Amino acid sequence: MLSDCLSGLRVLDLSMYIPGPLATMWLSDLGAEVVKVEGPLGDPMRVMGPVDADGTTAFYKLANRNKTVVALDLKSAGGKAAFAGLLEKADVLLDGFRPGVLARLGFGDERLVGLNPRLITCRLSGYGGTGPFAERAGHDVTYLAAAGMLAASGPAERPVMTFPPLADHAGAMLAVNAILAALLRRATTGKGAVIDVSLSEAALSWMGGVLTMAERWGTPGREADLINGGAAHYRIYRTRDGRFAAIAALEEKFWRSFCTAVERPDWIARQADPLPQTAMIAELEALFASKTLAEWTTLLEPADCTFEPVLDPSEVADHPHHRARGFVRRAADGIIDVALPMLMDGQRVRDRRPLVERGAEAVLADWR
Predict the structure, then answer these.
(1) Fold held by 234-310
(2) What residues of the chain score a pLDDT lower than 70?
(3) Among all residues, which ones are annotated catalytic?
């Protein structure tokens, strides 16, 4: 069973907002037991955005499913003692503080190793634990700015912010990969590890091709890039009813299929026009504006031309492909949850449960 892969693994989650909680939730999907430690004021994500009737946001509930939440004041003697007890029995600690904060609270590397030499500590911060930006404040848009990703994205008029936040999610995925790698190493060496993962560098890791192009040929205008708005056959177009359609006909066979479906064989040879394909883009804009999205879907879906309607988020859960795959789930508490999107031997992870709040003493009793 996929959900038993990490059975018996104990994870302490000392993070807030999105990246760390997502990472530990994905570990819990694989069977890990996750205890999220929050300060007296709780995770700010509890109230950041629209709140449900219970005073808590859906975003907080989503990112912290499957977990036990424990309130501890790590500035107090009692809180420090309880946290030390949990560390002694844990396998993984995810530290979402800025670099140096946990050490100032009395839990630096030497103390952690003394408490538990097998502990895998993953530090997940904005810019990493070293360098001039180590203690710099930031959020997703500034992490992407420092990685060069904002300058490379969006139309010529201005960069485009991503939603959901890209660096946060990329960082969460990278943290999971690093933790799993450290667990594999520990299985053969018996040693723990200290991992340093940066949200900005998680985005930066996707940028090698862009950086290479910029160094070799200079930074072109975004409107001249093949897959960033410069090509007519790889764009998003507005339809007559104000919806949007996406076309991604990079290969000649798909472009030919599209041109045949729209009865414009004269366009086939124009796929390789110099970038930006301004004239061709204008012609496709006029074409797509002539029909509704539903009409385009009826015409182009059978053509196998890499066309997709741009779905509104409210349409995604009931999309026939997503229903068939079974990863989008409506939970009893009204949350629309997206399960870990992977199958192992044809099996999905179990449904996630809502978070449970417990006292540190009760968790320590279970872990003894």
Answers:
(1) formyl-coa transferase, domain 3 (3.30.1540)
(2) 1, 219-224
(3) 139, 168
Q: Quick one: DSSP state of residue 126?
A: S
pLDDT in tens, 57-83: 999 999 999 999 999 999 999 999 999
By the 10 Å C-beta count (0-12 exposed, 13-18 middle, 19+ buried), 287 is classed as middle
What is the 3 state secondary structure string of 318-356?
Answer: CCHHHHHHCCEEECCCCCEEECCCCCECCECCCCCCCCE
Give the pTM: 0.94
Biggest distance spanned by C-alpha atoms of the chain: 77
CA-nearest of 285, 289, 296, 278 to 231 is 278
Domain boundaries of the chain, sorted by first residue: 2-206+330-367, 234-310
The span from the CA of 231 to the CA of 248, in Å, is 10
d(CA 333, CA 183): 34
CATH topology of domain 2-206+330-367: Rossmann fold (3.40.50)
Count of C-beta atoms within a 10 Å radius of residue 207? 16
